[in-house]
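Progress report, Aim 2. The chain analyzed during this reporting quarter is listed below.
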Amino acid sequence: MTRALPEPTYRRFVAGLGTLSLRPFDLAEDVTTLHSWVTQPYARYWGLLTASVADVHAEYLRIASTAHHRAFLGEHDGRPAFLMERYDPAYDAVGRTYDVAPGDVGMHVLVGPPTAPIPGFTGAVFETIMDSLFGDPLVDRVVVEPDVRNVKIQALNERMGFRKHSIVTLPDKQAWLSFCTRDQYADAHRMNEAG
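Predicted structure tokens for the chain:
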């Protein structure tokens, strides 16, 4: 008998694209898929290029064992398509680089390699993640810390309303500490829809 996967915690229909959803990461089912993503050159900033499946399993077992860091698998029409991590910055190295405020939530995102490129897909994934985070009434601000060399994600962050704060030193990288409040995201969303 096949074990049921966790139910989505968030689902959004995007006209012309389909349904994007987020569900809790399942260690037994999702590690192999994630390993196939993080070991590709485009995912170099994820820091797992040379990881084995066992290494990825160990990392996500560590995440699952904490009360302050959660991983979610994103699906596009029911197929694995992206990963989102949500974490409490107060328990993370980034929290030692600024004054963490109540309502801050940290986020990491990795989009899986497309079988066929879909225009606007990454933006729709990012909006789905931001909508899910701000759907939590306790979240006031999203915190990200992309590698300073990762200019693609910095541009996407900016498009979604993030403002760069400062370059910070983390254990594994120099990073652009950036913030996006609920209002900044709403303003950026309106501009993106208009433009």
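The first strand starts at residue 10 and ends at 14. Helices lie at 27-38, 53-64, 121-134, 151-159, 182-194. These observations will guide the mutagenesis work planned for the next reporting period.
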